[in-house]
Every structure is written in structure tokens, then in C-alpha cells.
Amino acid sequence: MDVTFVTSNPGKLAEVRRIFRPYGIQVGWSQQELPEPQAERLEDVVRAKLAAAARAGSGVVVEDSGMFVRALGGFPGVYSRYVLDTIGLDGVLRLAHGRSRAVQFRAVAGYRRGRTELYATGTVQGTLATRPRGANGLGYDPIFVPTGERRTFAQMDPAAKDARSHRGRAMRSLARKIRALEGT
Ligand code: ITT
User: Fold this and answer.
1) Which stretches of the chain are DSSP H helices?
2) In the CATH hierarchy, which fold is given to the domain comprising 2-182?
3) Catalytic residue among 44, 64, 141, 157
4) What is the mean pLDDT, run by run of 10 residues, along the chain of 184 residues?
5) Best substitution site from 6, 12, 13, 123 to test ligand 1's pocket, by max atoms within 8 Å of Cβ?
6) Which residue(s) pair with 179 in the sheet?
7) Distance 7 CA to ligand 1 centre (A)
8) Which of 1, 49, 106, 146 has its CA 20 to 30 Å from the CA of residue 113?
9) Inter-residue contact 162 to 105 (CB < 8 Å)
10) Active site residue 2
11) Where are the domains of the chain?
């Protein structure tokens, strides 16, 4: 079966294509930046994205994600992309300097066909690295070390990241729900 992933981020697309493949779901790409409301919760952003994505046709997938630094009250959270584009990885490391390094990635994924909507979430706990390491992945991967690992996500091969990541968890859960809804 086919779905269309509406995202402006080619890194996310590559991951979702890989994660959905074992479920027999092919992922087309509608490359667009959906309007995002000023919201404090990823769930609210995803609901708004799904409503806007309806125009892209039936069987659409959207996702919103972010990195939440506990000692910074969850910052950058829903503002992760903006913060990365402005102060960058070094800016985030400077803000976190001298504080507890506990951090979490979260992803909320949504699917819509007609009036039916499905949602799934995924989280992964970790710590902030002291400096960026590695070249794989996207966004904050060079400074995120998942719990139980020494390597950052950017130092892992893609399958190792998918097995542990917030997106892997959210998208595997969503793929199972889509399969259950649409049959095989
Ligand atoms: P959309 O068009 O799908 O919205 P986006 O890049 O704007 O793409 P978000 O609004 O969900 O996506 O912003 C999430 C940001 O959080 C993203 O740009 C990255 O900077 C960061 N992020 C999300 N998932 C990540 C991951 O797996 N590893 C590292 N950083 C990640």
C-alpha cells in the first residue's frame, strides 16, 4: 500500500521510508512546509498539520518532533527547528553548560484518510554530548547520546538509530495501526 508523507525535511523522509518498508508501506513525498500553530504540545502541532495536509490527498502521514532538555524546562521542544536554525548545536550546548545533561527526543506521528485519523508517539531518553560527534542522521543527532550508549545518534548507522529513536518508535506504532485499519 501507499501513503504520502508531507514534510519539508528530507532526513525525516529517508527515515520514515526505511521504517515503513518492513510493513509493506511505500512512502511518497509531498515536499511542503505545512503551517504550524504556536503550540506548546507536539500533539497540537500534528493535529493542525494533519488538517492542513488533507489537501495533499488521501492516506497522508505527518510528524512533529523535538528535543527536550530537562534542565532547560524542556527547551527547545516544539521550537527545535527554529533554535537549530538560529543558535545551532553550539548555542544549545552553551545554554546547557554546567547543568544536568538529561535530554529526551519526542515524536508524534499522524495519519489521515478521509475522516479517519490515527496517532502514535515515541520517545527516547539520553544525555547531551559535550561536543558534536558524527556525521549521520539529522538535526541534533551529533549531540544526542541515547541512554545505554556511548555513541551519538550521528555516529550510529541508520538501522541502529531507527531501532532506538523516537521516530522509529512512533512510526513503527503508526505503521501497525495503519495496517490494522487498512488490512493487508
Ligand atoms: P516538517 O516539514 O516535517 O515540519 P521540520 O524539520 O520542520 O520538518 P519539525 O517541525 O518536527 O520538523 O522540527 C523538528 C526539529 O527537531 C527538526 O528540524 C530537527 O532539528 C529536530 N529533530 C527532529 N527529529 C530529530 C532527530 O531524529 N534527530 C535529530 N534532530 C531531530
Assistant:
1) 10-20, 42-53, 80-86, 88-96, 158-164, 166-182
2) Maf protein (3.90.950)
3) 64
4) 95 98 96 90 95 82 97 96 97 96 98 94 98 97 98 98 98 98 79
5) 12
6) none
7) 10
8) 106
9) no
10) no
11) 2-182
